[in-house]
Amino acid sequence: MEFSMTRTVEVLSATPAAVRGLLGGLSGEWTASASREDWGPFDVVGHLIHAEHTDWIPRARVIVEQGEDRTFPQFDRSGHFALVEGKSLAQLLDEFDAARRQSIDTLAGWNLTDDQLNLQGLHPEFGPVTLRQLLSTWPVHDLTHLRQVATSMAKRYDGAVGPWKEYLSILK
Amino acid sequence: MEFSMTRTVEVLSATPAAVRGLLGGLSGEWTASASREDWGPFDVVGHLIHAEHTDWIPRARVIVEQGEDRTFPQFDRSGHFALVEGKSLAQLLDEFDAARRQSIDTLAGWNLTDDQLNLQGLHPEFGPVTLRQLLSTWPVHDLTHLRQVATSMAKRYDGAVGPWKEYLSILK
Predict the structure, then answer these.
(1) Is the ipTM of this complex over 0.95?
(2) Is there a contact between A168 and B13 if contact means CB atoms under 8 Å apart?
(3) Chain B residues inside the 8 Å CB shell of A153
(4) Mean pLDDT of successive 10-residue stretches along chain B, which has 172 residues
(5) What pTM was estimated for this model as a whole?
(6) How far apart, in whole angstroms, are the C-alpha atoms of residue A152 and residue A123?
(7) Cα–Cα distance between A150 and A40 in angstroms, integer?
(8) DSSP letters of A113-158?
(9) Which of A17, A123, A153 is closest, CB to CB, to B21?
(10) Closest CA relative to residue B16, chosen from B101, B86, B107, B77
């Protein structure tokens, strides 16, 4: 499927509702992280908020503005730990919702043309990428983390399912 | 994590909202199936409805009632194709919501004791399983299919993300 702005924004708009629908009513046993390396849903939502603030729109802005230095700012994969400290999951779900709305508003305000979507920025690791590729990656990143949330939750019932484990690919 | 009825029902209650949040506003390009074998979100929701009708509660009832024959009815993995025919995704999301509510009501009405949770039924393929294991498998099955939905959607942007593909485990 080819990139389209409409379809991209459809997914970007859906993710906060999907995450809230899944996690909003769960107890901490489903959502807490096992460790700083093994993120549960709580840290995943923190990571998604952090990416709204420091990754997607800031990188898109580097491309849209086409300034002297088009290298993206580095993204800190541990950057959300400070952001989530002392907060409840309910607070994080609200923050993600608000941050995502603001991102989508910014994106809509740019009224990007096809020519602008072909403009490039420099990824600090793999070099030149287009705005179109960056914006395609954003919803896929959402889906990757939705998948991570589902997997993290499922594994908590790994022992409880007994012989069904054989049939559940998510537990492999 | 050990099985608990409360935690199990938390996830069972969350899934329809999660699925609706994710899929409710998407165009068919994100949700259609590629083929009868390669299910997109549309067929996954159909499968979840079909399992409400013919799998979880019917099997649990076989155990709860402890009749002469405790072998579970077979579950037809293609059984949803008839159910979804001619329907919109919006209709299926409503049907899943209603069917799941009814399942949870039935479950709550049974007021299951610990002793009942230890009762067994006979899986047609792998033999004796407890009610506790069946009820643990139900939310994990939800999460497996939520993961499948996320994966199926992400793969549609496989080419669009360009060099980011290397970093996105969901596309591997």
Answers:
(1) yes
(2) no
(3) 11, 139, 143
(4) 97 98 98 95 98 97 95 91 96 98 98 98 94 98 98 98 95 94
(5) 0.97
(6) 29
(7) 9
(8) -HHHHT-EEEETTTEEEEHHHHHHHHHHHHHHHHHHHHHHHHHTTT
(9) A17
(10) B101
